[in-house]
User: What shape does this take?
Amino acid sequence: MAASVITVPPGTVEQDLPALLGEPARALRRGALVAFPTETVYGLGADALDPAAVERIFHAKGRPADNPLIVHLPDAAWLGRVVAHVTPLARRLAERWWPGPLTLVLDAADVVPRVTTGGLSTVAVRVPANPLARTLIAVAGTPVAAPSANLSGRPSPTTAAHVQADLGGRIDWILDGGPCPVGIESTVVDARGDAPVVLREGTVTREDLGVDVTAESGSPLSPGTRFAHYQPSARVVVASAGQGGDVAAEIAERQTTGLIGPTLPGLDPRVSVLASPLGAAELATVLYDALRQADVRGLDVVVVEAVPSHGLGRAVMDRVRRAAGGGGVVPTG
Ligand code: AMP
Ligand code: MG
Assistant: This one.
């Protein structure tokens, strides 16, 4: 089975989207798997309230059954459809950050099947910023569970081509809305109490939320952080700031090596430059594509130059360290 593809050209006006997306939206409603762009990464969507459809997501990705999914809504007015109790904190955060890359964990309504929540009594929800994503969900008329649209353990997809490479033969539809501007996954926050508890860092930073700590990696509160993530076949090495070129040159004496980091004149010509981001936001945008490029080029090693570990930099460096094999303790296979 090859996925059907719809390409939505940049600049398409929002009023034209419902007609363009009618077919995949109806398919979604009947249990199909539809990959779609969000501002963070591409998601692999299924009807969040249909256990058989959600089961297919886990099967297509090879995702461990106890790694819960994020449920996507077209607007905050849908919260009551999937959440048992909307706390005042959740209302405040939703008003401030939605649509946008912030996911809220709340007590789940009874209609949400346990396969969607990885067996938990809570559910993670967000309203994505991409109008294509919101229109697809609104026209389907059902909340959409959507993890990143990659094979489990691999770098998340930030283009439709990445989705095609990993899942093209396993899913029904791919909506191509161009590259994702943010490039890393949403911030996940437990919003059940009086103050937010950060479970996974992202573009909405701890500083933005006025929070000092993140739940420990592997904590039962944050099931996804137990698993290996974002790993290409190439070995990933993290170099300190300013050292990327030198570290890559040294490794390039023995192995084929790529670099993700600022490039200076005089870089060893044996090093393949995969991306030259300047700063944390640019690194977030290009990271997963560059890691995948390393595999396309068959490189042995990819060196990623670190960015300062605060704000968005901390969220990006979390992804980089996981890509390098740190942090995740259980390989997903
Ligand atoms: P992904 O969609 O692959 O980016 O992963 C979803 C992330 O959301 C994982 O890190 C999960 O741990 C987290 N998540 C989803 N549902 C819940 C929940 N009910 N409680 C805590 N974390 C959740
Ligand atoms: Mg993922």
In short: The chain has a mean pLDDT of 95.
